[in-house]
Prior knowledge:
The complex is a heterotrimer. Chain A is α+β, with helices and mostly antiparallel strands.
Amino acid sequence: MSLVEKYPKEVKQILSKYPPEHKRSAVMPLLFLAQREEGYITKAGMQDIGKILDITETEVASVVGFYTLYHDAKAGKYRVQICNDLPCALRGADKFLEELCGNVGIKVGETTADGLVTFETVTCLAACDKAPMFQTQGPDGINYHENMTINKAMEVIAGLKYAGKEVK
Amino acid sequence: MSKQVTLTIDGKQITAPEGALIVDAAKMAGIDIPVFCHHPKLEPVGMCRMCLVEIGRPMRDRATGQIVMENGAPKIQFMPKLETSCTNRVEEGLVVLTQSEKANAGQKSTVEFLLTSHPLDCPVCDKGGECPLQNLTMAHGSSQSRFIYDEKLHLEKQVPLSELIYLDRERCIQCARCIRFQDEVAGDSVIGFDERGRSTQIVSFSEPGFDSVFSGNTTDICPVGALTTADFRFGARPWELDAQASVCSQCPVGCNTTLNTRREAKAGGNIVIKRVMPRQNEEVNEIWLCDKGRFAYHYTESKKRLTKPLTRTGKDRKVNRVSWEAATKLAGENFLKAKKNFVVLASGRLANEDLFNLKTLADQFGGKAVLYSHIGGGELTAQVGVSAGTNLGVLGSGSTIVVVASNLYEEAPIWYLRVKQAAERGATLIVMNPRETKLDKYASFVERYDYGQEIKSVQELTKKGKLGDAFMKAQNAIIIYGSEGLGVAGSASLATACAKALNETEHVGKANNGLIGVWERANDQGAWEMGFKPEDDLAAALKGKVVYIAGADPVGDDPKLAKALESADFVVVQDILENATTEIADVVLPAQTHVEREGTFTSGERRVQRFYPAVAVVGDARADYAITAQIAKHMNFIMQSANANIVFEILAETLKPFEGLTYEKLSNVRVQLPMIGRGDMYYGGTTYENTHGLGVHLSAGATRGETVRIPRAQKEALPKVKDTDLLAVPVSKLYHRGATIESAQLLNQRIGKTTVSMNFDTAEQWGVVEGAQVKVSFDGVSGEAKVKIDETVSAGVMLVPRGMGLAIREPAVAKVKL
Amino acid sequence: MAHVVLRHRDIPNLNQFDVYKKNGGFSAFKNAVKKMQPTEVTDVVKNSGLRGRGGAGFPTGMKWSFIDNKNWPHYVVANADESEPGTFKDREIMESNPFQFLEGLALCSYAVAANVAYIYLRGEFWQLAAFLDEKIAEMEEAGLLGNKILGTDYSLKIYTHLGAGAYICGEETALLESLEGKRGQPRVRPPFPPTFGLYGKPTIINNVETFANVPMILANGADWYKSMGTADSSGVKVFSLSGRVRRPGNYELPFGATFRELIYGEKNGAGVQDARQVKALMPAGASSSLIVVNGDDKILDTPMDYASVRTLGSELGSASVIVIDDTVSIDWVINKTIHFFKHESCGKCTPCREGTYWMQNIVHRIHGGDGKQGDVDLLLNVAKQMQGKCLCALGDFSAMAVVTGIERFKGDFDKVVKV
Ligand SMILES: Cc1cc2nc3c(=O)[nH]c(=O)nc-3n(C[C@H](O)[C@H](O)[C@H](O)COP(=O)(O)O)c2cc1C
Ligand code: SF4
Ligand code: FES
């Protein structure tokens, strides 16, 4: 099903934000929309967006490739994105990351066996005063989890199993 | 002329047009500033940081705004940072230092940065020898790399972006010239960057890959060996190549080319063409070529080349290898016998000189000179065609261009580019076509009409209304007409309507005004100027005649013509390749391709341009004009044929539009801006400088003050179509099964299957679906094709591509069956 | 002293429409739209001495006055990309004092006669964008946004737009490219946004905090604002304090407050963790030139304003102060910053794309204990070679900590390089 068929209201609302002659501006919000269900953007999704905006699939793909929050390959349902940039690292983020990996049993870049969680490291998320922290990117958007301890983090991760259901 | 400003570059005082980029102004003054991302045909982006210079500006007093003087001269204030000369524009009093210690250090650092990731595989690189990076490394690079070789990023080296263009990811320096060319110039945004930072790389997601007919140009402007053509890669080293000026023979645009040749063991020590490169002519093709023109040269070396004269004699049609003398004698004798039954059928594949001799022969012996073409109206382009001084490259605001019944992107790609750019410069573009074409996007007005209604649409141009205003009030107006959905008669009527509109509104007889036909072949316009004309009913015209065919394959193209020729009295064919017609001919005469000889073509813009011999003659082939003269000799008629030059001289004396033209005049050149093709390949790419002639326009009847005679526009005779009928219409395709394209293995892959297109509803009505293999029949022709669903096609209509096996001559009522 | 930008710290629930309104909210905007000429609004901002809070410190009123009135329409864009490591102030402002920011954005739009404004938020601020959309809707409902605002002829729509993970989109021209639906890569400047901005039209871009100051300036007057801060840096600044301090967070102080006040003030940073010594400071996030402190009182007593910080061989930038204590080795710091810049380099220009990659290779070697003789010099040399050659400031930013780190803390590097 095409994006317009699946989310007619959302597409319309997104397009209404930009001057019609510059509808290409809608490419970023449409990509988030296309990514909502699968957690990544399929080739068909890119073609679809290209058609809506009168741009080529290559132009859409080129935007996907540039930004780190768009994905063109399947991963866990939730991407747990742990900040270990300088300010967080000064407050123990690297150690936190290491321990968390140990506890969950996956390394950065890996996905849990049940396909629920993929670990990624990210650069600063504007939460430096609340380190250690991570965000989860999943079907319900992006959520911050701050002032983490390993215990709290494990709770959050365990809760992800149910999170999607509640939201939808 | 625009306002000039005076500035100083490296101590040299120069003047330059206001608004010029410093790098371009320097170039014109003979100062080369190294660049990678800058290209004079693209918008400045300042991203490679190669062109760093020191820029000083006259200091102004904050309070008074006056220039501060010091020792009698303006005080110059230099910026603390180096600046890019490709993004800064000239200003009065600027002082630019391109060679200072600081500027040199900056340029050197950019080269070093580029080399950190570059594989330095020059010895095996196709660009080696004409590589800006290589050259600049020699000039600026240090001999010792500070980058640890083992830490170099290793990337894929032979990524096909398409079957035509290959990418070497390691060599790419991310200058984006290729992407920007496709976006800005070609308008096909089918390649782009993926990822970012050091991972940035070129990708194409189109289907087929790199889906643009302009893709080859990116290999010219790529400043390193990252983009290469599948055709040339590993083929030769640039320094081994010779260069000879030529003209593309693939369409009526007449792009100027340079043939790069080399003596090759593989070819038995013969000189062969290794690649076709663009040759700069800002009035014709600038520095570009379409992929067909670039890659479709292989036919010249095809195994199917005719090399020896042949005859077929006796009841059993025995094939005999004979001497030139014997073959031409046999032909001449039969032509003499023919009397009024003599038909000369020739195509615009031939040069002006050839067609002139052929026409002279026909005239001398009461024969008919028939043009092998599906488009009519050339007698009108000869009268009201564009003439001297015309240059699509300068049209902009104040000019109106009408494109009717043509899909220029497919039929004459470089005209498509030029028209698109004119529209972008502010020209009013009116596109009239029954279906959407790529040019629509750039049009001020798009006029959709039903097949058969083209004349009515053109008539709108001279009536009150939006279109009329745009056309009648335009300072300059050009109409480009084609044959989409039309046969000979239909397109002739359309031409009449167009000529009338131009004439009535006084858009004739002056530069940048007039009519242009989108012909099938490179020299159709030339053929018309000589007096060749197509026949409405060619089959009838051939039946029972003695036919002299030059540069055409009627038997292969159309079963009806094959049938007509079966009953012809005697058939002489002169051509370059074996084909279905040479299979049935009584006499077969091997002709030279244009790359083996001298001659001239007349482009659709009525520009006469010279081409030159580049490779050795294949077998015993002779130039067409000489073959005709030899036949004439056996008919006791003496015709000049010692060389093309002499034929041209007589031609110019005989035909008014050619009056005063000589080979010498055709080979005159003027400075072409931007200056491309000099030693510094980093500036404009590998396009060749034009040293062999820009060509000269023919005069038009209207310019010479002759009365313009335009017949009354007949209405096009569309067959009667009922609601339940399917109307088949001919359309043109860039890559079709023409002999010259099929010989190019690479392009062959783009020709594809025979398809007919219709919209979804029509397909449903006829019970067919996308991809279905169907039997198509119309007008006594039948054949197989695949169905393509295309929503731009109007209801009840089926598009049938020309040259793809279904011999469609004009619109016809058709049927499809599974 | 009462807060100016972080007023929500004094007034609970300020992010609720009614609370904001009751506390004088929207009066400046109402007054401007009804009683002031657009240029008068610009003049007040000009006179207040307000400088941009996004990092460059460009005088805000002057920027607004550059808007090209020969080319229409005009746009206003709020830079809410907030991606500089160590910066987290805009987020707090938008979360807790959203109306003051929106009112400032509306005032600017009125001042430059723009009818459409966009808020470009970094993609991670997903929930925040939804929250702002609600706040915008509330303002529309109250007739403060939308068509014919408060019965005047002035109309304004504000839209949020999410980025998707790219630090470079904080650079104003990259942001515009991104907003136009392209890869977020910087444009050549000039022309600057006030003449050639969004869709090629005149555009004013300011940081969230910059906008959040504006309603208070309009309400209390330019002189009131100038009475705070220093001569060259008037008013108050929200400092994002992070790193090895006891109480990291945002603290609003007048310009000219000292590093010591920020780091050691009981209501502020409350001192260094484990009572260690401050070794170095990064006043502008990862883009900073490192300030050597090593416990030097004089340095800690330096006032935080644009000019004074420059005397320390650094820049105030976005005032995101990262505190590094004596437990930290600078080669580790550099390893982090280079990783960041290498990851975030957009790849458009050669020195940055190649230089960050090259520097990362070298610093990995050094930091990983595989450093070769000459590597530190090479690193320094590569960083210097990048300086002043890049298309946008990111390239220079990436070299700041490297150059100053090596020049000012050479010992830390020598320790890890095997000779
Ligand atoms: C690499 C880079 C990143 C930047 N990131 C931000 C940012 O996240 N937020 C911001 O407001 N300004 C950022 N800026 C500064 C903006 O380019 C611009 O100067 C600012 O938005 C102007 O607003 P102001 O005058 O209110 O400071 C960045 C600049 C550069 C070069
Ligand atoms: S300095 Fe870096 S971020 Fe800026 S344009 Fe160059 S590559 Fe892009
Ligand atoms: S930056 Fe000027 S040529 Fe690339």
